[in-house]
User: What shape does this take?
Amino acid sequence: MKYLHVTELDGRYLGELRETGVPVPGTGEVLLRVTASGVNRADLSQIAGRYPPPPGESQILGLEASGTVEGTSDPVCALLAGGGHAEYVAVPQGQLIPAPPRLELVSAAGIPEAFLTAFVSLVVEGGLTPGINVLIHAGASGVGLAAIQMARLLGARAAATTRTPDKLAALAAAGADLAIHNAGQGVGVGVGVVAEVERHWGTNAVHLILDPIGAATLADDLTLLAPGGRIICLATMGGARADIELPLLLKKRARLIGSTVRARSRAEKAALITRFRAEILPAFATGALGVTVDSVLPPARAAEAFERMRHNRNVGKILIDWRPQAR
Assistant: This one.
């Protein structure tokens, strides 16, 4: 089978299709013929050597895919620890998700990583309840747009930030009550975002914050947080070491929670997906949730896809189309 191999040279991504054997499913696994795979920032970190797959998992890039289970015509998508950017991937049975009939199968590749991450962050770790205020950083990313939709679906109010003014319309279209241009320096929240949130919701009014930025936003997250609120840290795009005001953390009884999906055990992922299928997946059938697709590229142009993500040009999911006609 063909799989995608990506390296970085002189600041540019180089992609090539290589050949390897079709994976042999182990106990509790099925073979998925891949229709499409989703590009994620975790792929960029893996290329840079900072985010290797968990022990025993495929070294091939790719954390999500859609396709059909080999030997059947069942359309599914799958959460993966690796191996998605290929013609075939072995998938633990518990990590399969039925592809919603309303979605094209290519688009369904944008569900697993983005929407599972949003579900785990908002519901499992964040304890989202109807009526609360949620702040979502990097709102135009795949996870960000999924989280905005999910927060609204579950009865919360959502504010979302972006550094790119042209992306504000996408935040509003996904259901954000507040779509905020982060005009601060670097990738930080900046005084403008704090002031904008407080102008609409008041002080100490954000109950739950999804933050993939990290050091650059954490102090202002704490400023905005309501007493007893939670900050879910998903990544460190804006720095890995942060100074925070511990007395304020104590005063607000705040909880700072680190969360990842990839490193969890297969049993834990299966349990999360069981919940997701029961609590969230039906909303795709009604149209209450949908995948925002930024672009779809063939494997031969994968380097463009990775460059597009690195430079934050995407609004929603970037997908690789593995169907024969796309190659």
